[in-house]
């Protein structure tokens, strides 16, 4: 087995966010862990590709074929890969939590004679898991989930069908109008929260003013989302009530008009509650069809409120006059769902907010409001999913005006705090992620010399004008200088030529030289790549031109670093990232096997595509030039250098080889 201890933040509980493929590890962990924390919804999100990242566990799982567990700290994820991502800031309680769980599990696993021999890749063997208040870990197999979900879905459909048949045409129309209220709830909730997201960049110094103070999200997005949900739901309620009032005129002629109006309100209230059940039934059906592990949440949000309704509200028959929904129905119905999901929602929301710091993989490539809109959509979805039952109680209560006034005041206070800078978007302990790089671009020359400049860019949405003004040093900000760092690109940055011609030597520029090129039907090109003193580099190979390649250590040709075989490609490029120690090789032989359809292309095409690149390389040096030292000393305290495997060091050399070399 492979046990991976990761961190995507600093502190909190160490939670399992990937397990399997074989269920043995998670099932036995559940038996012995003292304070288990695990949520399969994290695995669902991670495996969906929504998080553009990977962990070491995937190497052992996908390449070695091992099963196991993947843990991670996720609290205060905004500091991930910044200056505050340090061991000394890890809370002792967090380390103790991980240690006690792991020690108990490893002692149990090491003494077991039943370690899994097979890989357990069957979808039926997949384990569904979630914890209850960090005390109990519940696990069950996918086959059990299928039986349970299918049973609940079929019974629910039977009840709905029976209810509609008994209610006839009126019940069908009432259900349709109830569904309209839920649809309007979603539309208005999402609309209001997105409007708030678009307002933020216009009035605040940063489009993500909530990074250092995540609680601001409650006022900035939660309040508009709740207000929109209520308004949309109430609009649907009024339409439904109007229809039911008309139907009662014909069906209950012996009742006074005022009584018919009150009965219509009560009946509308019940229909809206039952439509909340239908919303979760649809979600459970979709989750069951696609075998989504976190479908257990839909099950809990469906069964518990349905049970409370059936127990306390007595009947689904339209023959009896409706009564007001009992508060006890809501309390009993929502106790289990909130018990299972409240902690998960809080942790997940904190993680989503924290990732805004590093939202832009390619700085400047997306609108600065996009990350904020995604968070707004996330908050609106939580409101619509969790408040759908509560909404049905509000319409005939006295809470309507307090909800409207309260949400407006909360939004105004939160927006005012962000606008006036009372709550800064970043602090020294929760800093903005930036990179300061001395770039030497040999692919671009001026007076026959490589172009050199100091670049300041950020993966956090928003401009860098304030930071550049504080640093000084002649920085100019904009989109006029596109920067290709091989593993990513920069569309928006600040740059300065001041002092950029010193601190580096031409002999450090990587060399790409063509040793041999056979231009026939099976074109093969042999290239020597010399990274000079750099043992950390990234190389991009144009897979539109190259079908396969072989990479060897030039000092030991028997050592195939990357053998022949199928190669992956992203946007037409295969990216190699190399990082070695002081004795790592720096000279390599790259053999390229051209795509046959490209090798025979006419000279007209070659002339047209002359500027196309065949290879792109970046070499990194963990070295500060004099100008970099000066800039870093002036870097604002609310900024932190951002470093991960794809990020360049403070000195980077760029070079390339064109297709038509």
From TrEMBL:
Domain Peptidase M28: 2-105
Pfam families in alphabetical order: Peptidase_M28
MF GO annotations: metalloexopeptidase activity
Name the record gives this protein: Vacuolar membrane protease
UniProt-listed PANTHER family: METALLOPEPTIDASE M28 FAMILY MEMBER, VACUOLAR MEMBRANE PROTEASE
Highest taxon listed in the record's lineage: Eukaryota
Keywords: Glycoprotein, Membrane, Transmembrane, Transmembrane helix, Vacuole
Organism: Olea europaea subsp. europaea
GO biological process, one term: proteolysis
Transmembrane annotation, as ranges: 157-177, 183-203, 210-228, 271-290, 296-316, 328-349, 369-391, 403-422
GO annotations of cellular component type: vacuolar membrane
InterPro entries for the chain: M28_fam, Peptidase_M28
Needed cofactors: Zn(2+)
Role description: May be involved in vacuolar sorting and osmoregulation.
């Amino acid at each position: 087995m492979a046990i991976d201890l990761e961190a995507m933040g600093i502190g909190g509980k160490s939670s399992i966010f990937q397990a399997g493929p074989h269920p043995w590890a998670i099932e036995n962990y559940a038996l012995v862990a003292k304070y288990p924390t695990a949520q399969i919804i994290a695995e669902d999100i991670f495996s969906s590709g929504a998080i553009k990242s990977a962990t070491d566990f995937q190497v052992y799982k996908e390449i070695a074929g091992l099963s196991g567990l993947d843990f991670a700290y996720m609290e205060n994820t905004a500091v991930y890969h910044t200056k505050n991502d340090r061991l000394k800031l890890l809370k002792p309680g967090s380390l103790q939590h991980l240690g006690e769980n792991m020690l108990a599990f490893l002692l149990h696993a090491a003494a077991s004679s039943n370690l899994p021999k097979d890989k357990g890749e069957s979808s039926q063997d997949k384990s569904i898991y979630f914890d209850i208040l960090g005390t109990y870990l519940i696990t069950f197999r996918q086959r059990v989930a299928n039986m349970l979900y299918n049973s609940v879905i079929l019974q629910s459909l039977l009840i709905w069908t029976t209810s509609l048949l008994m209610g006839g045409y009126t019940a069908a129309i009432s259900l349709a109008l109830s569904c309209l209220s839920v649809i309007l709830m979603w539309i208005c909730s999402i609309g209001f929260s997105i409007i708030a997201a678009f307002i933020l960049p216009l009035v605040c110094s940063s489009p993500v003013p909530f990074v250092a103070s995540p609680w601001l999200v409650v006022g900035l997005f939660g309040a508009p989302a709740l207000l929109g949900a209520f308004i949309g739901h109430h609009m649907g309620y009024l339409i439904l009530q109007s229809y039911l009032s008309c139907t009662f005129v014909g069906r209950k002629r012996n009742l006074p008009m005022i009584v018919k109006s009150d009965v219509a309100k009560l009946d509308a209230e019940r229909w809206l509650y039952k439509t909340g059940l239908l919303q979760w039934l649809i979600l459970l059906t979709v989750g069951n069809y696609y075998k989504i592990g976190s479908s257990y949440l839909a099950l809990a949000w469906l069964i518990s409120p349905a049970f409370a309704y059936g127990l306390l509200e007595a009947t689904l028959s339209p023959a009896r006059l409706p009564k007001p929904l009992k508060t006890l129905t809501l309390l009993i119905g929502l106790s289990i769902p909130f018990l299972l999901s409240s902690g998960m929602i809080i942790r997940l929301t904190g993680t989503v907010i924290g990732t805004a710091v590093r939202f832009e993989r390619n700085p400047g490539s997306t609108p600065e409001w996009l990350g904020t809109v995604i968070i707004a959509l996330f908050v609106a979805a939580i409101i619509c999913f969790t408040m759908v039952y509560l909404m049905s109680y509000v319409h005939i209560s006295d809470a309507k005006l307090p909800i409207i006034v309260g949400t407006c005041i909360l939004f105004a206070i939160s927006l005012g705090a962000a606008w006036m800078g009372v709550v800064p978007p970043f602090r020294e302990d929760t800093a903005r992620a930036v990179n300061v790089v001395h770039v030497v671009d040999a692919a671009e020359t001026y007076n026959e010399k490589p172009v050199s400049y100091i670049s300041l860019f950020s993966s956090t949405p928003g401009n860098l004008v304030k930071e550049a003004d504080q640093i000084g040093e002649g920085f100019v900000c904009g989109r006029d200088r596109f920067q290709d760092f091989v593993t990513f690109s920069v569309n928006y940055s600040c740059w300065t030529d001041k002092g950029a011609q010193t601190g580096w030597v031409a002999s450090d520029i990587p060399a790409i030289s063509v040793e041999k090129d056979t231009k026939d039907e099976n074109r093969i090109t042999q290239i020597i790549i010399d990274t000079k003193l750099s043992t950390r580099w990234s190389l991009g190979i144009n897979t539109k031109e190259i079908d396969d390649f072989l990479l060897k250590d030039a000092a030991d040709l028997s050592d195939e670093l990357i053998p022949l075989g199928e190669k992956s490609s992203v946007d037409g490029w295969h990216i190699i990232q190399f990082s070695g120690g002081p004795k790592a090789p720096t000279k390599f032989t790259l053999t390229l096997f051209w795509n046959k359809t490209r090798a025979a292309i006419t000279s007209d095409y070659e002339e047209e595509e002359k500027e196309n690149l065949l290879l792109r390389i970046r070499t990194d040096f963990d070295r500060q030039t004099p100008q970099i030292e000066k800039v870093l000393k002036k870097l604002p305290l609310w900024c932190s250098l951002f470093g991960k495997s794809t990020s360049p060091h403070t000195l980077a050399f760029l070079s390339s080889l064109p297709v038509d070399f």
